[in-house]
Amino acid sequence: MLCRSRNDRVIAGVCGGIADHFGWSATVVRLFFIITGVGILTYVILAIVIPDSPSSLL
């Protein structure tokens, strides 16, 4: 399930969550957002739409 990351977050954990979901590096996803011009608006929309990861009881 696609969730925002609690551990690998800079702002809202969107890129970290996408990277965890697909098994990629979070740095690659962040660079993709910057280089392709996907932009801030898309990031904000994803931060609203993608749920936060469930809390760990450990």
Tell me what you see in this structure.
The protein is mostly helical and 58 residues long. The protein has one domain (1-53). Helices cover 52% and strands 0% of the residues. It is built from 3 helices and no strands. Helix 1 (14-22) crosses helix 2 (26-35). The longest helix is centred in the C-terminal third of the chain and has 11 residues, at 39-49. The mean pLDDT is 85. This is PspC domain-containing protein. It comes from Anoxybacterium hadale.
- Beta-strand percent range: under 5%
Q: What would you call the shape?
A: globular
- Low-confidence parts lasting 5 or more residues at pLDDT below 50? none
Annotation field: number of helices: 3
Query: How many structurally independent domains?
Result: 1
Distance between the termini: 20 Å
Secondary-structure blueprint:
Layout: H1 14-22, H2 26-35, H3 39-49
Helix pairs in contact: 1-2
Protein name: PspC domain-containing protein
List keywords for this structure.
58 residues; 3 helices
Care to give the gist of this entry?
This protein is an all-alpha fold and 58 residues long.
